[in-house]
């Protein structure tokens, strides 16, 4: 009611003001644009046109009349010319523009070119100016568009290449590497990308001086005069400038690389560049054909050593050789950083301090040693009384020694071939947690090999990953209640108690990851795939007792030390496809799975708790609480207990689309999630959670919902509202629960999920 009264007051005040003599007698001195309209567009939206063409960004249709805006514009000009301050009323500070026919013609041409660049080669644009009232000098502008038919690439292309040897290279590129596919919508931006790709491809074949200026791409309008199916004429060379380098078709080989220290300040800890060590990071050999990718790969290897602030390159050339000269600016030997922060949980502040110290060139000219320490005194919910918050002390210490090479036998490294940013890491860590319920420590030793075969293919292999975990309980009522809680879970089939028993967990693991794009908040097409293999307790197979005596003696616990033997496999596949004429919406698909099998009879065929699979939560099945779904058709009596499993199947499909601008980009999403976890029949869990080939598909959980993604470029805030569709924990005839959705805490309440970044 209050806002309504304010609006009525504004209308009355406006009517009184506009009835004054000065406003009534005010006349336009020149024609003004009342509105700019777009008509005739079908396949390209008005939003796209207004976004991409400056002259169409505003429609100029406003709340008040154009006369109001122009009247205040004249008032402001008068005050400014007299040196007075601008008018206080800023509501009318964007007047309607003057009619400018040459500028409108430029906008018309921009619309035509935009349509042509997007495949409408025969589009036509008509400009119409309608006078509303000659006495008021006010006009409406309309751009009427005849899109005509959309053209596509036919791939019936012609080639005009002067050098026969170069022509064979172009044929090879065209057959496998071309970015233009048959039946693709004609897009002139793709022609520019095709030229860039041809240049890059040939620079990898030894053509050092080949550039995009040598490539001519022209639409072939002779084969199909209707321009519905358009081929391309490839012409090489096609130089437009007189002074362009004409050595485009000459092959070059690498000469010897040299290194230059570009450190201008006098610093005693920099030292002299070790050219022998640096040469080992170079992936090409003297005499190899020039390759821009090999060169970039070498520079990345040097930069990944973390010894240099900057890495740049210059070239000296002879008639047949390219001599790279790598200029380096070394980093300081010592680096220290410290961060003080905090969190708030249920109104309780929790400070933390993180320190890191890096020492370079410890044992060689290219290694570095990382020390990090984090101390936090933060609040968390209690295990027993989850509505109570307590402060917990957590300390994390780690040390890692990094070498920019793989310490592997020579024959294995030769089989791996040239690599990007290869690295060997050796380290150890110590974690300490002090909660009212328990005191927990974890001492770990690890070794890792990391390398990349390309910017998109990453490998990691670890021969040593040892963890020694121990838990002590204080003599308090809270600790006693927690131990009783763990025992209660054990009787229900939940093996959380194993996480708090003294344990020795060792494993060998391998991970391969492929990603066809760089991670970004921007919607983009691509796919990713990751596979992981892990063998736990492998060396215990060589010991009859399946235990290591000195580990038991070191822990000195009155409990039996758990030694685990297990195998674990997991995979993760994701696909992203752009939709729409301008590829502004996206369908994202995820399918992940896993299998973990404990074969240690001495541990009742149980996995370390951290090696189980879990499902549910903001980045999983969003209609269930985090890690609470399953296993199988098991119906837990409470949702406070995490549900582990040995078998995982999970999939999601999400349609993402743009909505509007609000201090960033607001995007929307519709999604469907499906999946579950199961246990093996030899486990100690409930039979409802066992996996069976003839019945597992009846236990697939399904959820759906709608989400908002607020994209601020530097980070993305996400809100998802999800509801269950099929609940496998329900009886056979009651699994469909979508109709029981409610915002209250009923049988199928809507789950609210808040997160940072996309769920996948």
Structural account:
- It holds the Pfam family Omp85.
- Its main location: membrane.
- Residues 31-147 form the POTRA domain.
- Residues 555-755 form the Bacterial surface antigen (D15) domain.
- This is Bacterial surface antigen (D15) domain-containing protein.
- The chain is an alpha+beta fold and 760 residues long.
- The chain contains twelve helices and 30 strands.
- The strands form five sheets. It has a 17-stranded mixed β-sheet that branches. Strands 4, 5, 6 and 7 form a four-stranded mixed β-sheet that branches.
- A hairpin with a 4-residue loop joins strand 16 (420-434) and strand 17 (439-454).
- The longest helix is centred in the N-terminal third of the chain and has 17 residues, at 2-18.
- The protein is globular, with a radius of gyration of 34 Å.
- Residues 265-270 have low confidence and may be disordered.
Average per-residue pLDDT, rounded, comes to: 85
List the uncertain runs.
265-270
Largest sheet: 17 strands, mixed
Number of helices: 12
How many beta-strand runs?
A: 30
Oligomeric form: single chain
> Rounded to an integer, what's the Rg over CA atoms?
34 Å
Helix fraction by DSSP (H/I, runs of at least 4): 10-25%
| Distance N to C terminus | 45 Å
Strand pairing plus helix content: what structural class? alpha+beta
- Residues in β-strands, percent: 35-45%
Shape: globular
Subcellular location: Membrane
Organism: Aquirufa beregesia
Protein name: Bacterial surface antigen (D15) domain-containing protein
Pfam family, one: Omp85
């Amino acid at each position: 009611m209050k806002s309504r009264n304010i609006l009525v007051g504004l209308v009355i005040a406006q009517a009184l003001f506009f009835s004054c003599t000065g406003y009534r007698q005010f006349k336009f001195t020149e024609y003004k644009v009342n509105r700019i309209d777009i008509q005739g567009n079908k396949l390209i939206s008005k939003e796209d046109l207004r976004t991409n063409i400056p002259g169409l960004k505003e429609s100029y249709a406003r709340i008040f009349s154009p006369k109001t805006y122009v009247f205040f514009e004249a008032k402001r000009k008068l005050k400014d010319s007299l040196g007075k301050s601008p008018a206080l009323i800023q509501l009318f500070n964007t007047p309607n523009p003057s009619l400018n026919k040459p500028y409108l013609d430029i906008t018309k041409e921009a619309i035509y070119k935009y349509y042509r660049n997007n495949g409408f080669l025969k589009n036509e644009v008509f400009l119409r100016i309608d006078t509303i009232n000659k006495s008021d000098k006010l006009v409406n502008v309309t751009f009427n568009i005849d899109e005509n038919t959309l053209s596509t690439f036919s791939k019936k292309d012609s080639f005009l290449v002067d050098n026969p040897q170069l022509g064979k290279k172009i044929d090879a590129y065209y057959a496998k590497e071309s970015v233009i596919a048959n039946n693709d919508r004609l897009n002139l931006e793709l022609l520019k990308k095709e030229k860039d790709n041809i240049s890059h491809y040939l620079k990898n074949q030894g053509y050092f001086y080949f550039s995009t200026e040598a490539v001519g791409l022209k639409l072939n309008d002779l084969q199909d005069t209707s321009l519905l199916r358009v081929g391309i004429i490839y012409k090489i060379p096609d130089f437009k400038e007189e002074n362009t380098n004409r050595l485009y078709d000459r092959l070059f080989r690498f000469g010897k690389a040299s290194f230059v220290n570009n450190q201008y300040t006098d610093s005693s800890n920099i030292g002299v560049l070790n050219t022998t060590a640096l040469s080992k990071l170079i992936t090409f050999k003297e005499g190899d054909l020039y390759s821009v990718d090999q060169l970039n790969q070498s520079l990345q290897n040097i930069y990944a050593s973390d010894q240099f602030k900057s890495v740049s390159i210059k070239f000296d050339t002879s008639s047949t050789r390219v001599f790279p000269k790598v200029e380096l600016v070394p980093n300081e030997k010592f680096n220290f950083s410290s961060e003080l922060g905090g969190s708030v949980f249920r109104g309780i502040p929790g400070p933390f301090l993180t320190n890191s110290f890096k020492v370079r060139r410890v044992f060689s000219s290219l290694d570095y040693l990382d020390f990090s320490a984090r101390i936090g005194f933060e609040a968390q919910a209690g295990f027993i009384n989850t509505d109570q918050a307590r402060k917990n002390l957590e300390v994390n210490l780690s040390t890692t020694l990094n070498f920019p090479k793989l310490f592997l036998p020579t024959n294995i490294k030769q089989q791996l071939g040239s690599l990007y940013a290869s690295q060997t890491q050796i380290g150890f860590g110590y974690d300490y947690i002090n909660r009212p319920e328990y005191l927990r420590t974890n001492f770990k030793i690890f070794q890792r090999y990391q390398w990349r075969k390309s910017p998109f293919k990453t490998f990691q292999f670890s021969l040593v990953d040892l963890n020694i975990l121990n838990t002590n309980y204080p003599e308090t009522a809270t600790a006693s209640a927690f131990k009783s809680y763990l025992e209660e879970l054990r009787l229900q089939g939940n093996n959380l108690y194993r996480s708090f028993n003294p344990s020795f967990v060792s494993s060998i693991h391998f991970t391969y990851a492929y990603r066809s794009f760089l991670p970004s908040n921007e919607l983009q097409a691509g796919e990713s795939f990751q596979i992981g293999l892990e063998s736990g307790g492998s060396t215990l197979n060589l010991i009859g007792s399946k235990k290591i005596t000195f580990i038991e003696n070191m822990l000195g616990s009155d409990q039996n030390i758990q030694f685990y033997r297990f195998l674990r496999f997991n995979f993760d596949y994701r696909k992203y496809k752009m939709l729409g004429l301008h590829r502004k919406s996206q369908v994202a698909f995820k399918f992940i799975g896993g299998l973990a099998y404990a074969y240690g009879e001495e541990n009742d065929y149980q996995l370390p708790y951290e090696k189980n699979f879990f499902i549910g939560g903001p980045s999983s099945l969003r209609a269930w609480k985090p890690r609470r779904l399953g296993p199988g058709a098991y119906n837990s009596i409470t949702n406070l207990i995490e549900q582990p499993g040995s078998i995982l199947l999970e999939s999601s499909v999400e349609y993402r689309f743009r909505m509007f601008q609000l201090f960033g980009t607001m995007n929307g999403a519709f999604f469907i999630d499906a999946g579950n976890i199961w246990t093996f029949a030899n486990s100690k869990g409930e039979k409802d959670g066992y996996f069976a080939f003839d019945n597992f598909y009846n236990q697939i959980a399904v959820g759906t919902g709608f989400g908002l993604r607020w994209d601020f470029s530097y980070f993305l805030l996400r809100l998802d509202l999800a509801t269950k569709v099929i609940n496998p924990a329900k009886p056979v005839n009651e699994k469909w629960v979508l109709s029981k959705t409610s915002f209250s805490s009923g049988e199928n309440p809507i789950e609210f999920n808040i997160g940072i970044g996309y769920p996948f």
